[in-house]
């Protein structure tokens, strides 16, 4: 592990930083949450507005976050404090990152629940490989209804859900306790590229066998009348969730980037790779959804219900299914690791404790919330913790945490980040860090100062009260 002058760890190379940041961005947000949100928000209008959000809001905010982290070379709140100090601004601005660290912790707790579902499907395909053999499709001799019943079956079993959730959390804790370069980089450097290739292959196969035309029409036909306040807030929340923004995730990783990394260029690479995987996920999953007659708005289970049906029809289905869910597992792990890293780095730097101890404390908290989220699908299905707020009126614990973080914490965190970087921080310090010149620099600056905070505030108010 390389150490910078401040004693803080650094990624071992520029490409390792990019891959780790892409690893944080690309995860369940792309494969699981993007299709589910697109399906629940009517398809095309959501998708196109999502792309607009990534380009006009996500990308400038992403650069702002990694820039703060790299300048600060510390955990997220401390990095903001250092930028503030070097700009002669009030250090209280660090609250924006403290909120983010808390939100990352909340996301971690339910993210590991979904990570547990992935582990479950790895088990399903592994056992099927022994039963169905390598050559044919998956689930030989089992009818479609049985495969469709897998997900509801899992949801109904609270104990199994909790076990899987805690298992996934424990694996995340193992990697984080080992530290940034030895634990996290390895997964990002070797497994992310492999994942991309396999995913592309499955999507191309799907293009020839599922209802591809219908899926394309569904995802890319822009119907302006469907673009309500809710849909816009959902799209902006998804853009932040997918790019790991507004919750200190990218600030934390930015702190591990070294001086000669061009942050402007790197942010472009991260956002393009992340958006490519999300669109690929949509193009992979919706042809199956239409071919199998599944409901597009079936929510969190969409990816897990649809893909096994495709693997059933595919040659080498069990093997490809197993490989696919294993890759999703690693993509999820590189993201959950960054979610745990944000609060852990804050805790061990602030309280000067061992990394492993901080990991344990944060992990234990996430386990408690995770159990409540796991039970949201069964024993606690009727427990609506924030039912007094209209936005969460009939929302279970799992969906409440998800909505609260993506629709409130992330946009608010991003608005504050833009105001801080655009108006409060010393312009010379910012210019020095961002790696942009000429028109690109001016455009970014205008987006961060004016467009992002204004558009975000309008979407937030419109989504909440409109
Ligand atoms: N971007 C991750 C995904 O799309 O799965 C989720 C995530 C990771 C959100 C890290 C926030 C974060 F700080």
Tally of separate helices: 19
Reported by name, the CATH topology is Amino acid/polyamine transporter I
Tally of extended strands?
2
Tally of discrete structural domains? 1
What is the topology, as strand order, of the major beta sheet?
1-2
The description of the largest β-sheet is: 2 strands, antiparallel
Based on the coordinates given, report the CATH architecture.
Up-down Bundle
* Protein structure class: mainly alpha
Give the class-level CATH name: Mainly Alpha
Please give the radius of gyration in angstroms.
21 Å
Shape: globular
Ligand roster: 4-fluoro-L-phenylalanine
Explain this structure to me?
With 466 residues, this protein is mainly alpha-helical. The protein has one domain (2-465): Amino acid/polyamine transporter I (Up-down Bundle). It has helices at 14-25, 28-40, 44-72, 76-86, 95-132, 144-148, 150-155, 158-178, 180-209, 212-220, 229-243, 249-254, 263-291, 302-313, 317-350, 355-375, 397-424, 427-434, 438-465; strands at 2-3, 9-10. Strands 1-2 form a two-stranded antiparallel sheet. Helix 3 (44-72) crosses helix 10 (212-220) and helix 3 (44-72) crosses helix 17 (397-424). The protein is globular and about 70 Å long. Mean pLDDT is 91; it is low at 1-7. The structure holds 4-fluoro-L-phenylalanine. 4-fluoro-L-phenylalanine binds at residues 24-25, 27-30, 104, 107, 241-242, 244, 247, 249, 335, 338-339, 342.
